Amino acid sequence: MGRLVATLVLVMCSAACSLARAHVGGLRRGVERANMRGRLLADAAAAGGGGGVVPIYWSQPLYMANLTIGTPPQPASAIIHLAGEFVWTQCAPCRRCFKQDLPLFNRSASSTYRPEPCDSARCESVPAHSCSGDGACGYERKTLYWDWDTFGIGGTDTFAIGTATASLGFGCAMDSNIEQLWGASGVVGLGRTPWSLVGQMNATAFSYCLAPHGAAGKKSALLLGDSAKLAGGKSAATTPLVNTSDDSSDYMIHLEGIKFGDVIIATPPNGSVVLVDTIFGVSFLVDAAFQAIKKAVTVAVGAAPIATPTKPFDLCFPKAAPAAGANSSLPLPDVVLTFQGAAALTVPPSKYMYDAGNGTVCLAMMSSAMLNLTTDLSILGRLHQENIHFLFDLDKETLSFEPADCSSLS
């Protein structure tokens, strides 16, 4: 499974079907379970009102950030996970560890590290909790959208990430069945939970802007608290966040319309809920909408698609097809996604036609039926977020966005 997932990530898809099913199942879990898991990490001290600027960077196939943990500071790196519930890193001693580029965090070498006692109310509220040999609270957690587990202990220590500093509760992972995290030491979650980085720093807003993947030397940016602001031009748009019944960590919005040039793409009668995501690479549309846009793209390209598309894509063309290439004299139209409140997000052909190598370009959108979803759920992947500044206002429960040169914000 891990090898398949890694392959999908590298070609901008980022998850296999069973992984997405597990994720969507998480959207429906009750608030009680979410709160129980959160208590281990929920009450670390905040600093500076939750403000800070965090440079993030593309490291194939995901966006990451550098940080330090402990006193004296020990370097670590982490995948930035928008829906991530909490913060964790690998720690020494480690029984089963995936390879990372930096040394393991050594909690015994940090004078500010404090373990969570195994007999505390918070520890007892964590599912599958246990006591480690030194009396610290043990835990077991799923990571990202994979069927991968991490095992370790909960603790608190000083974190510095960009200009933000805080004492954070985090998971100290010392055993896992993870094959790789592409050099990273762990994950920084930004989810709608009190124990994510955003929650623990008491940030009432945050934003991020992803520079195009593979852009050498160009930094992206994560901005927390007062630092999170849009330029506020005419192109800025705002849409409400979906209030989920299960208090999930995800950020979702309502999709009300899709246009491909002058072609109106049918959406479900009641619209579609869209999960905004930084792990998936491509976007997924409900099947009827995907089939319609697939047909419209084929007509616009004006050439026969490749009989056997490059995996995992569903629609591919030779790069030499009249309208398939980025420098074509017959350019394709933009795709415009309209969210609740008439908030329109424009996706140019350079973002939805992906160079898959071997002389082929593929539609970087796929059917949510591939994920065996039973709900009208679509997913806005990272590729279609590049050079768009996204602002999450947690007080107003809104998502605002506008085009931007993301590399200039860091």
TrEMBL record:
One of its GO terms (cellular component) is extracellular region. Residues 1-22 form the signal peptide. The keyword Protease applies. Keywords: Aspartyl protease, Glycoprotein, Hydrolase, Protease, Signal. GO terms for biological process: proteolysis. The keyword S-adenosyl-L-methionine does not apply. One of its GO terms (molecular function) is aspartic-type endopeptidase activity. InterPro entries: Pepsin-like_plant, PEPTIDASE_A1, Peptidase_aspartic_dom_sf, Plant_Aspart_Prot_A1, TAXi_C, TAXi_N. PROSITE patterns: PEPTIDASE_A1. Residues 63-402 form the Peptidase A1 domain. It holds the Pfam family TAXi_C. It comes from the Eukaryota. Belongs to the peptidase A1 family. This is Peptidase A1 domain-containing protein. It comes from Oryza meridionalis.
